[in-house]
Amino acid sequence: MRIQMVCLEDGITSCGFRKMAAYVAQLQPGTESCYISTERYRSVKAAVRGMGDKGRMPDEQVDEIAQGLKDSDLLGFSSMTGYADLTHRVIKRVRELNPSAYIVWGGIHPIIQPEDAILGDVDAVCTGEGEFAFEELLQGLKDGRDVTQTKNFWFKPTNGNGGQEIVKNHFLPLMSVGEMESLPFPQYGEELEKIYLPGRGFVKTTVDDYLLNDGLGYTTLWSIGCPFHCAYCGNTKFIANDAKYKRIRHPSARYMVDQVKDARARFPHLSQVSFHDDSFMAIPYGQLEEFAQLWHDELKLPFAVYGVIPNYVRQDKFELLSWAGMNRIRMGIQSGSKNMLDFYKRPTPPEKILKAGEVIASFAPKYHIPAAYDIIMDNPIETRDDVKSTLQLLYMMDRPYTLFIYSLKVIPNTGLATAMEERGVDLDEIDDSYLAIPPKWANLMLYIIALWRPPPWLWNRLMGHVRASHEEQTLYPRLGMFLRTLYLTKRVLCHVRVMDFSITPGKTGYVAWKLGLVGLWQKRFTRRPPRPARTVVKTPEVKVGLTVIQPPDLLAD
Fold it and tell me: What is the mean predicted confidence (pLDDT) over 13-22?
């Protein structure tokens, strides 16, 4: 049986797909992993303009992709919602070329919006964790059995009258810590990994492909789960499917360290690791301590922690992780308005955000690259005061920091989608890419505050021009390009000054690594705080890898 796993997402380093592809390749040796991305080359022009063009691809390229997939017996697609339309188009063309192929669609989009995914030319969509469910499905297909009762799947079989009836199955239990520990390491630089290149079809991935996506960085996850229930987040759907998703699950620290070692064995140039966990800082101190000790002793690599929640920012954890190698964090602020934070169902009041920012800023620039804070703009229900509250919070935040600025994107089947519809908002009118940042005055002020804190008199004058997103206002495209160019340049320089090439894709960092500059800097010039003394923590210490998080307001500051 010929199997191809197909990823349609940003770049070629999707953490979830790589885990799934490794597991399927273990079940069926010879399985190919095929990457399709409209963002293989990160356009400087698009970055400066704040543009997003996910999923847009001409018909001739869709046909070329389908030609490279049509000879498979079983195809497993994976995509985020931003690539759902493109996935539909590719699957439809594959079906036209090979009606007998068995096509499965998994990934985040079918979990969040299975009603949309099942309407395509697919046989099944995966609505939960995929590894063990796919194994059962694959074995059933090999044995010639009826597979339509396989859990974690919806099926669209054809009945005797030629019609179709969707079979919606229940969920398997979430993976245990032991099961997570038994999984193979995610694929990274394996022999049967391919990437689609226009005009050439699917070709074997090379070192250049990885450099063009992640520079010298390696992207991964240690933990799964989130104790929060933010209305805009796809995790709300995961929690609705199984309330136990709120628990944080992860394999051992040893597994994580060995995973990075495995990737570096193939790509020695990997010089930084980014953890894209939803709630890394919510892991109890004792488990972080084991991780930090192993990382410090055996890898000595700088690493970034994404998905930091203000409620879980603690001085002792930052000291411990910074000693191990953490040199950058990314924290979600989203809004500085208490009204909007409540609307988003995010229990992170502005005062807690300010307190977290104080802790974070104390580590930069001596030990850290300036932290990145996520901000959501262009929400049609925000008032002018809400927008001003966000700007004022950032003005008050301890520096240095930078910003990740996004336009609001409403994910289907989330609490935010329901709340927006209840308020009469037409979701189709705000369906642009979250990367398409319109040059409104408030958005331009975000670039200004990320670059420099103006004196109060100037800041107050600038604030007088702020308007709510839905209000009629002048756009400033040229000024926007100028400020965004400065903002991006500052971000890059903050990384390059410490020889961190994880956000600057391409060969520049690779050349610096080959010349020994990256290694020399990390060994001789990187500063880290001293090893902190063991701290007694009130946070519950349950068995390694499985954490039941207390409500945020009960956590020790």
Answer: 93
